[in-house]
């Protein structure tokens, strides 16, 4: 009944990609009393399931314990989809601490600068590239790249598979693109032209870095003003 007595200044419903960040950042201020409620299981640092940590995202995606069972959605009714394919089907949405970041494909791509600038032009004040870049830098520890476009001190580990470690099939495809005149872009989060590239992942080379793992560390969880409720 401790929970019922907790007077919260912030209740965060959903410990997903965003909720974990909110809980961590809001509870930095001791005067805030923060309650984070997640419907799925919690994943404390020492108890993150192996299939969530796995580099191959298909393992977590295949575990129905991390999803909203019975969630169905119609995927579209475009003419290109045959009638049999239009029936509502299972819709993957995470139900676990870290939300999508615990089960997704780990692809860590920023949008294009011109897209953010387009948002600002359309009226989203404060969302141009110059305004969002500090936050991309702040969230990451980019293992491969530094400089003005990248962060080294953020909690989310980001890494690419270097060209010389691509499997022979992918290298062969790259060689064909190269021969066709397409440029190899070393950093997809910094070289914004057309070309082919190694995808940045929220992964340190051997394990996934979900939002839960990155932001709800042991130290953060020990804050007396933060209450985390899993399966709630
Ligand atoms: C299969 C899949 C693959 C993806 N691959 C990528 C990728 O490679 N790269 C990428 O950038 N994006 C990817 N995405 C998208 C990305 O994961 C999501 O955009 C992101 O996680 C959304 O964050 P969110 O915080 O808005 O919601 P979520 O991360 O979905 O978090 C919502 C959380 O709220 C909880 N919740 C909901 N209702 C309640 C309630 N009533 N009470 C308590 N808790 C509740 C849920 O259980 C969930 O944990 C993928 C998504 C899916 C589903």
UniProtKB/TrEMBL annotation:
| A single MF term (Gene Ontology) | flavin adenine dinucleotide binding
Name one matching Pfam family: GMC_oxred_N
Q: Which residues form the Glucose-methanol-choline oxidoreductase N-terminal domain?
A: 10-229
Could you tell me the keywords of this UniProt record?
FAD, Flavoprotein
The Swiss-Prot or TrEMBL record lists the needed cofactor(s) as: FAD
Q: Entry's InterPro entries? A: FAD/NAD-bd_sf, GMC_OxRdtase, GMC_OxRdtase_N
The family assignment reads:
Belongs to the GMC oxidoreductase family.
Please give the name of this protein: Glucose-methanol-choline oxidoreductase N-terminal domain-containing protein
User: Native species of this protein?
Assistant: Ancylobacter dichloromethanicus
